[in-house]
Amino acid sequence: MARATYRICTLPGDGIGPEIMAEGKKVLAAVGTRANVDFVCEDHLIGGAAIDATEGTENPTALPEETLLSARASDAVLLAAVGGPKWTNTDAGKPRPEQGLLAIRKGLGLYLNLRPVRMFDALREASPLRPELLEGVDLVIVRELTGGLYFGEHRRERDVEGAGVGGGKGGFASDTMEYSEYEVDRVVRWAFEAARRRRGVVHSVDKANVLETSRMWREITHAIAAEYPDVRAEDLYVDNAAMQLVANPAQFDVIVTENTFGDILSDEASMLTGSLGMLASASLGSGTALYEPSHGSAPDIAGKGIANPLAQILSVELMLRHSFQMDDEADWIVSAVRSALDDGWRTADIADDATPADHVLGTVAMGDKVVEYL
Ligand code: NAD
User: Going by C-beta distance under 8 Å and a sequence separation of 6 or more, which residues neighbour residue 176?
Assistant: First the structure.
């Protein structure tokens, strides 16, 4: 059988980005060798690195055209992180690294963000929650990414009659939350499909007792649920969902929700694991999918060789699963990470007083360790 080849647009970005990307690629290459698949990675610029490279040109930018073209032509995009103090003090007219992220998501038509939250038993003590609450936590948050409040009309007026304190003139602001049926349908449908491949439960989170967008969301969800009799579907108000996530997180399998609610709930859920260095995310849509760690560029530890590469490595896991339908190979990565942690290997951010000094690894050594356990 011909050997499969996949082209991956790799975007190391800034700060610890290049260090953790190297480990992601190392694990990907090891999986490729074992699975008889060629993963051809091609590095491109994004974020501060792109701003530096295009400075002084006609169009200084955090997302050069050739990066977007390569991303579109690739089978998947693997991103590390962007940003850093070097680029934060620029004036409003200058490009900022984070604009590269928004632009690539838009340019690839990525309308759905996926953040799995999975407990590694060896790291239970790192969570702010009591260990017994974390038994069996394995959930995924599916967030609508390109609609709702963040993309509706934003308006600001000054000196509006009656808006001031005491009834005089004052400021007025409004943000509009909008959804079209197709935007809801494609995300909710994806959540039901995902639940079918997992434990078969979808919680749809809304605020249907107050918001019209939520009432439409609920109607669409109920219609889709009728097509999936094998999936248990539940509605949950967002305030209750926020509470349930810390009170009983193990009840959840797939949580699907709109943009703003998803933004907040996915950060809350990420704290269940207690460790930012362990969480990966995927953005999916009409174009090439993009995979990245949930954390930023950690400029405080950049260049020191101590960054935790596991979120980047678990982004590779998501890429295998969702872009290449290589579920078995994706499982190899999860097992390798789990085994390394079970045997006590840690990077500094997830080590504690009980970790022997010779088990605290740097970025490269942790990447090597995962490859060893593959
Ligand atoms: P951050 O996630 O970069 O860092 C927060 C803290 O977590 C820091 O103490 C950092 O050292 C630590 N940390 C993060 N990742 C780690 C890892 N893999 N291993 C060990 N420790 C890790 O968030 P921040 O400090 O708020 O932001 C730094 C820069 O990153 C900013 O410029 C911000 O805009 C940018 N950022 C980028 C993304 C992205 O690229 N998707 C996301 C968030 C923030």
Answer: 149, 152, 153, 154
